[in-house]
Design brief:
The chain is 50% helix and 21% strand. A hairpin with a 2-residue loop joins strand 1 and strand 2. The N and C termini lie far apart (43 Å).
Amino acid sequence: MSQYIHHVPGRIRVRSKAFRCHGERARAAQARLMAMEGIREVQINQRASSILVQYDPERLSRAQLFSALEELGCMAAAWRESTHSHKLGETFGKALVGAMVKKAVEQSARGLVGVLV
């Protein structure tokens, strides 16, 4: 898996090869994020190349979190909001088309079996 983002207001988990925060940089990033207004908890898993941030969505946005991670050198610049949104939309579109094709094939197969029986 090259990337994974799970976001619900107040909690975001990013697991990605783009996440490259290790050792002292990870500890510094965690301290800096915790110092930001609205951050409740930060967990960095260096082995899994992931970060989990719990925050107050009324005080801090996902875009602000990504910007902070980029500034800290923990996220590749490719994760900017606009790039991510585009890739996310593209991935969702492909998944949606795939699901529709699968459903159409299933219905066609049922119809064929119904005719043969």
